[in-house]
Each structure stands twice: as structure tokens, then as C-alpha cells.
Amino acid sequence: MPKGPHGEKRPADAIGLAVKIGKIATGEIEDEREELSSAAAQLGSKGGKKRAENMTPERRKEIARKAAEKRWGHSSSTKGS
């Protein structure tokens, strides 16, 4: 049986995987994966909050504006804001 990214056993075929996901979703079986098991993942979640705390509201707004422009592909200055 193939292993997932964290060594967990998962069915190789799509139907078997769908059945397993359905059983996990309905509570018939427990998902054996550990949430945020790596130290790097735990530190990463703290780092973003700390970075936001140390930024000025203007800087956070500037970063958010740039992210929106990248995502939506247009400039916010064309809307007159």
C-alpha cells in the first residue's frame, strides 16, 4: 500500500481513497495523521502573527493591496481609491 507524505497508509486507487475519505468524514474511522507535527510548521504559524504585530497598519495595507493586485491582475488605482 502506498504511503502519504507523512508515512501514513493510503489506498492507491481513486475509489479506495474516496471510500477512506468518506469514512473519515463521517467519523467511522479516525484519520491517523498528526496535525502540525513538524517543528517548522509550528514555528511558521507563530512567525506570521508576530510579523503582523510588528508592522504598521499602513505597511499591512500596502502588502494586502499588492497581493490583491497580483491575484486579480489589475491595479486598485483604476477604481479611484
TrEMBL record:
Top-level taxon of origin: Bacteria
Region (Disordered): 32-81
Feature: compositional bias, Basic and acidic residues: 50-72
UniProt-recorded name of the protein: RNA-binding protein
Protein species of origin: Croceicoccus naphthovorans
